[in-house]
Every structure is written in C-alpha cells, then in structure tokens.
Request: fold
Amino acid sequence: MPKNRLNLTRDFSIRTIISVIIILILLVVFYRQITMDSLISQETRNNSELTNNLSQDLWPEYAKFLSSASSIPRKDLLLHPNFKDLNHSIQQRLRGLRVLKIKIYDLQGVTVYSTLQEQIGDNRWDNAGFQSALSGVPLSDVSFKNEMDTIEGTVTNRHYVYTYAPIQRSPEDQVEGVFEVYSDVTHLHNEINRTGYVITGGVIFSLAAFYLFLLFLIKRADRLIHQHQETENQLQEERMLFQVRHDKLTGLSNRSHMLELVEQALHRSRRTDKALAVLQINLARFRPINETMGHEVGDQIIKKSAVRMVKSMRNGDILGRLEGDLFLQLMEGITDSKEVANRANRLLEDFQEPLLMNEKEFVMTPSIGIALFPSDAQKAETLLESSGAAALKATKEGRNCYVFYTDALNASSRERIELEMGLRKALQANEFELHYQPRISPMNKRVIGCEALIRWRRGEHELMFPDQFVKLLEESDLIIPVGTWVLGEACRQCYAWHKMGLKGLRVSVNLSLRQFKSNDLPDVIEQTLQKTGLAAQYLEVEVTESLMAEELERVIELLQRIKRLGVMISLDDFGTGYSSLSHLMNFPVDHLKIDRAFVQDVTHNSQHAALTSAIIAMARSLNMGVVVEGVEDSEQQKFLEQYACEEQQGYFYAKPLPAKDFPTAVEDIKRRLRS
Ligand code: C2E
Ligand code: CA
Ligand code: CA
Reply:
C-alpha cells in the first residue's frame, strides 16, 4: 500500500529557513537604508552649516572675485593674491574638521575654487547635486573610494559624504554659487556596519532559538501524526486481511484461511501428539430452499445455521465457511474418535430444532463428514478432501448423519467419491471437451449434421467416456451446469463451422432427464442461441423415452416451448424404452433415432430387421424423420438402403471426432459417398 506520509519536520524546516533568510535580508536592507539615510541627513546638516558659515564669513569678501574667476586662466588664478588668501582662510577654517575636500562652483557650474587645485576649471553644470543646490536645496550622497586626494594628501579606503550646498548670504537671499563639501564618514560607516553585524547576530540567534523551540513542538506533532498514521495503516491492513480471509455473509473464515488454520493446527498436533478432527458440514436441504424462497432467505438461513453451529462448538474449536452451504469445523486435542462422534451427534441434535425465519420454520439437516489426523490424512488439503468425501457419503446415506472417512468408505465407494469430487472441479478446470460424430444423408451424399458427445480429459492421458461419468453428473445435479456448458460449446462450434464454410450443418445435443426438472430449460436454450449467434434451426436436442415417464404434461409443455424457438427435437435410443406409442403421438418430436441395438442385428436377425422396417414405416406415418444410429458396416448400410432411410450415423461413416478433425472428416465422407 503506498504510504503518503506527511513530513511536518522537513516541511517546517525548509519553510522556516527560507523565511529566516528572507527576514534577515529585509532586515539588513532596511537597517542600512535607515542608518545611511540618517547618516546622510546628519552630514548634510553639518556640511550645510559649514557652508553657511563659510558663506557668511568669506563669501562677501570674495564673491566678486569668484564670480569673475572663471574667465581667469587657471595658472593665473592660482597665483592671484585673492585666491591665495581665500585658500589660506579656508584651510584654516577646515582644520580639525572631518572635511576632505571643498569646491566652489560659480552659477555656470565652473569650479572656481577647490582644495585640490587640478580640479579648478571643471564644469559641473549637468550634475544633479549642483542643479539641486542651485535651486536652493542642498543634496548629499554617500560614496567610497580606495584612494583619494584630499587636503591632507592621499588617503585610502574612505567612506565619505559629499554635499552640494547653495551659497546664500541669508536664507532669503539669492543663490550666488555652490559649495561642494566632502566629509569623511569612514568611522561612522564602520560603526554602522559593526552595529549591523551585532543586530544581525542577535536576530539570527533569536530566530534560531525560536526555530528550535518550534522545531521541538513540530517534531512532537510529527511523531504523533506518524504514530496515528501508522496505527491507521495497520488497522486498514488488518481490515483488508480480514476481508480477504473471511466470508462476507457470516464473518467466518473462508476456505483459504481455513486451510491455513488447519495447517497451523497440524503443526501443533504433531508437537503435542494429539489427534485433530476436521468436520465438513453440509446443509443438505439448503439448495432447494434457496431456489424457492430466494437468496435473501437463503442468506439468513446460512447466518442462523452458522450461529447455531458456533453455539454447539467447544472452546477452541474453529468454524469456517467453505462455500454455499458447506462449513468446516476444526477440533484440536482429540484423544478419542468417540469424542468426535459425540460432538457430531450433539450438532445434529441441535439442528433438530427448526430455524425461525419470517415466522416460518425451517428444519436444516446437516450431513457431517469427519476426517482425522493422523489416521486419515497428513496434509491440510487432503484432510479437507477426505472430510468432503465423507460428507458426500453422509448426504447419500440419507442426510442428518455423520460419517467417518476411515472404514465407512470402502474402496469402490471411495473411488466413486473421488470421481465425483474430480467432476466437481472439472468444469472450472476446463476438463470437459466435445467430440462430434457426423450425421449423414446417404441419398443426398451429404453430411447434414453432427452429434455433440461429451468427453472428460482427466489428467494428461486419460480420456473418459460419458458412460463412466454422465450418471454421476446426473446424480449430483452437476449435469445442470455441465449440460448448459455443452449446449453453449456445441452452438459456438457449429456457428464457427458455418463461418468456415460448412453451411447448413446442424448440431445435436443430448439432454438429460435432470435438465427437464426445472422449467427454465427453454430459456437456457434461447439464451444460448442468442449468446452464440447460432440460428435455432441448426440446433437439435436429443431426449430419451424415459422422459415420457415423467410428469407428461409439464414435459410436453417444455418440449413445445423448445420447439417454438425453432429448435428440432429427436427421440434418442428409440425402441429400448418401451415407450407408449399413444404418448409418442403427443410428443412434438421431429426425428426418431433408432437405437443401435436394432441395427447391429438387422443383417442376422430377421425379427430385428422386421422391427426396424416397421419403426421406419411408423415414423413416416407419424410424419417424423428417422435416424439410424450405430451403422458399423456396409451390409447394414445396404440393408438400410432398401428402406430409403434418410439419415444415418455410425462408425461406418465416422467415429466421434475432436472439433479440429471434423472438417477434414466431412470432406473424406463426401468423397467416399460420391465414389
Ligand atoms: P447416445 O446419445 O446414444 O450417443 C451415441 C453413442 O454411441 C456415443 O457414445 C457414440 O460414440 C456411440 N456410437 C456412435 N456410432 C457408433 C457405432 O457405430 N457403433 C458403436 N458401438 N457405438 C457408436 P458415447 O459418446 O460414449 O456416448 C454415450 C452416451 O452418453 C450417449 O449415448 C448419451 O446418452 C450420453 N451423452 C454423451 N454426451 C452427452 C451430453 O453431452 N449430455 C448428456 N446428457 N448425455 C451425453
Ligand atoms: Ca444421442
Ligand atoms: Ca442413442
């Protein structure tokens, strides 16, 4: 199961670290912005003040000279006495201040004075600071230089603020020039940086402490959530395991889980040297109730029966439901088989009291088959099989009884039971197959149809014929699902042959008396035709005369329904079943299939010959077709020729063949008939 685990700690850590980094960057930027702004404004004030002082002290004296200084060549200007005086005065006033440089611009932006003489004559008209000062507003900014020429000579690594300040005699007066003052703020700048580091360190420390505190909380939450998730997952797994191992309706262990439990019990029994009993309990009357009263009632009966079984169990016994009406009880620590017999008896007694359902009473009759370890079987699987075989025997012995697997089953019945158990699995395991025997019209020299005959491929090499198992299928009612399969498979195959070019081929399917027990046989046939696509006229069903002994009216009604579908009906093995000829007239039959016993002797036994010709004549007068079965040699064939017997079937033409060999056989027969 994919676990979509939530990892709070990881998510939290990633997010927090990203947030802390963002906060720190913002903080540093903000701090620098504020401190630099305040540094600049402080320096602007200082420098403006200095400018004011200079404007008031020196400007009146030199204004005139400076306003015309731009027209004097630099060389001359530097030697001019006024310039020298001004320079001297300025240098004196700047002593002890943090001023690195001073420049004076006239109103055209020309540098008319600078403490660095080589800058004299430069024009700064385009400079934003100059323009601002010209309009009366001082402007400053901060900057850095690795190397800089100043009043005190060349200095290195300096942060400085330069301010453009207007020269005005008083604030109301006109701007007459611009000072540019460079002041050294290196120590302040360093101070700001140091404080910045301290604040950043402090913030990092507090955030880290806060982060660790939250981390502690989150880790706890994470752990709790994981624990919760784990228990939830475990519960989910347990629930799923329970569903896989238990029967939905009763909540009892299902077959595979019971097998595991028996296996485990076997281990324990081997260790403790005690016997183990496996009881297979079959609720014999359940199926008809389920069919007549509906599945809801059936389900309730299963549930109530399970409760009753559990009540009659001893502590430590285990009950499971294998399928439908089949339960399995496991008893451990057995010392004596009588003990098991007593318990089985108790269970039977407990079931004598009817189950109450919707104010109706139902008496269930369990048949119990008991297999013991170590005497009957050594493995869980075989214990289950043996108990199943014993339960089958119990059912046959009249239900409501228990049977031990051991002596109760003699060799022949054991074989029979094994056969029956094999048959139960055969359909699911795809072990049945159909062989097809061609049906010939000698006069038309054609193969007009075929009879589908069932075979049971039991193991790799053993092919069993119907006389070995059809009776068993009928006795166990397995003939119903198997018969439905035969119908479907035969129709499917016939349709496939039509597609391959064997146009008009008919297929005959043998129906068992048992299949007429339920009234839905015509529906099953109709559905099969629909599902396989075969048109009804190509299907024929074969029934035997024994059908006439059954509830005649109901059977005739069923046959008529089948006939109305367009399906043909033939009466198989005719002549062996002492059918009443008067009933025969009421039977909606298309063909009589004369039993092969007659044909066998037609050439030696004149009575048989007479009977055969009589039957053929009778069928003609009843408007029925005749099929002669078991034609084995050419003499028989010649005899039948005299009577213009229209349809024949027998080894003389072909034996029943696997589907894959059928089309070639058809070709062969046609060739033989025409030669
Ligand atoms: P059936 O319906 O009388 O089928 C004819 C049987 O005679 C077949 O035996 C066939 O192989 C055999 N046979 C055909 N021609 C000759 C011949 O020339 N000489 C001799 N000696 N025998 C011949 P198979 O296949 O063993 O079937 C036996 C019976 O089993 C069938 O007798 C039928 O009653 C029953 N059966 C076969 N398939 C099914 C099925 O799908 N459902 C049911 N309910 N019964 C089936
Ligand atoms: Ca037949
Ligand atoms: Ca027959």
About this structure: The radius of gyration is 57 Å.
